[in-house]
Amino acid sequence: MLAAPLQQVDRTCVRHGRRTLAYFGGCDYFRLASHPEVLRALHEGAEKYGLNVAASRKTTGNHVLFEQLEKKLAAFFGVERAALLSNGYATNLAFTQSFAGEFTHALLDGRAHGSLRDAALLLGCPVREFRHRDVEDFVRVLKKIGPRSRPLVMTDGMFSHDGSLAPLKEYLAVLPRVARLLVDDTHGAGTLGRRGRGTPEVCGVRDARLVQTITLSKAFGVYGGAVLGPERVIEAIQDRSRLFIGNTPPPLPLVNAALASLRILKKDRPLRARLVAKVAAFKVMLIRSGWRSPMLETPSPIIAVVPRNSRHAAQLKLALLRAGVFPSFISYAGGPPYFRFALSSEHTAAQLDALVQTLIQNP
After folding, report:
1. 2 in a domain, yes or no?
2. What's the whole-model pTM score?
3. Sequence-distant contacts of 36-43: CB under 8 A, at least 24 apart
């Protein structure tokens, strides 16, 4: 069953019934989806290029904008190459399609995103899970598959359910040279790190074994996805992935908008600084109130609350509505229902205070 439709009023509010509420749902961390420059680029792209190339890039559907965006993404994230895909979910599938048969095992974080789970099935090898973000259990599973194995490790970078980060440095420290680490950095890309390069940057890792997949629909506020990594990886995707070969690429106006979004994130340092400062101040208030949670020790803009029971959930929902905050309640298959609040650079001090005080008063 789908959630009830919401009407966005402005960059940080939605209409709920007859009320206008502060909105901490979604993951538009810089509100670039409504940024004037991004919208202008979208409109100009439609007028100049039309909507759609209507063909695969391997036939007659390639366009200079696609290659420009790939080059800009590679430069922004400090990698050799990028491969643009039609959406973020497809990036992990495209990678595993391209490398099916090259790995002996897939090692999957116990709370990995569904796109990673679907992608693992395309590898044609045994899939082994390790406990969520548990380095000790990861090492145990790695030893169990044997020293002659060639594993692909698959994990989120920043986990969407609570904002926790994967211990990428610890994984790489014990991985064999022939292994690879596939990091779905949907939520980390653009938001984490001094330059916005995501979880690998904030974890302090640069390694040729690491492949990062991203979406353009969250921090960048547009749509589409990309695989970032060594040239060999990108060439393999372009030559072997049926998702890349047989798929129509993103609409040209969205690509033009993504180029504008990328320029903004690169040049507008105060934008990221605002997000960092607001997240830090928000978490300090929670810590001072007595909150204890690993998520408060990360730079993640995600605040998650798992209610103790249905009564607590109803109590918190009512309190949020009274405070003028939309209660963003998430219920995915395979995990407990929870409230998730994504802070943005554009939320006002009053909106942030209303949320934090409600959380403090309803522990």
Report:
1. no
2. 0.96
3. 37/260, 37/263, 37/264, 38/221, 38/222, 38/257, 38/260, 38/261, 38/264, 39/257, 40/260, 41/253, 41/256, 41/257, 41/259, 41/260, 42/253, 42/254, 42/256, 42/257, 43/253
